[in-house]
Amino acid sequence: MRRPLRGVAALLLWALPAAADSHGDAVIAGALRFDPLHAGAAASTTVYPDGLWGIRADVLVLAGPVLVEGSLVRGLGATWHHLVLAVHAGAGADTSRPAFVISGGVAVDLGLRLGPLGVAADLTVHVAVTHETIVTGTIGLAALF
Questions:
Q1: Are 40 and 31 in contact (CB under 8 A)?
Q2: Is the dihedral of CA 10, 117, 88, 30 positive or negative?
Q3: Highest mean pLDDT range out of 16-20, 44-48, 75-79?
Q4: Do 67 and 126 form a contact (C-beta atoms < 8 A)?
Q5: CA atoms within 13 A on the CB side of 68
Q6: Helix %, strand %, coil % for the chain, to 5?
Q7: What pLDDT does 5 receive?
Q8: How far apart are CA 119 and CA 66, in angstroms?
């Protein structure tokens, strides 16, 4: 479990020098696995250093799988801080069993005009190379920066 977490930490540290001139979000959310139906929790952070391309780190705790992923993000459109639409693709690991995971999805941030608070939603497909496909949806509270 330590190796995937080190990879996510390295990805976030790589983004820190650009964070002063960047925008992004930090999200804590409820997660729903659609196949079979299970509830869980998710946390993610996205940083866009100077433009529409960015990086993202996710941790999803579901009934069974615990997914740790890093992704490349492309903003499709934004009226920053009020509405951001982005697509993401990346890879990671299922730490509950040895499995490499490839993921891709769509994320939306909607600012609430209450300081930095917003609502974040995400729909992602995760393909574990060794055993299964997992489709998740998340919705939660975001801090937009």
A1: yes
A2: positive
A3: 44-48
A4: yes
A5: 17
A6: 15, 70, 15
A7: 57
A8: 23
Residue 17 DSSP label = G
User: Do 90 and 71 form a contact (C-beta atoms < 8 A)?
Assistant: yes
The class of domain 2-144 in CATH terms is mainly beta
> In angstroms, how far is the first alpha carbon of the chain from the final one?
29
Domains in the chain: boundaries: 2-144
pLDDT tens digits for range 76-131: 887 766 788 999 999 999 998 888 999 999 999 998 888 889 999 999 999 988 77
Largest CA distance in the chain: 44
Cα(111)–Cα(117) distance, integer angstroms: 6
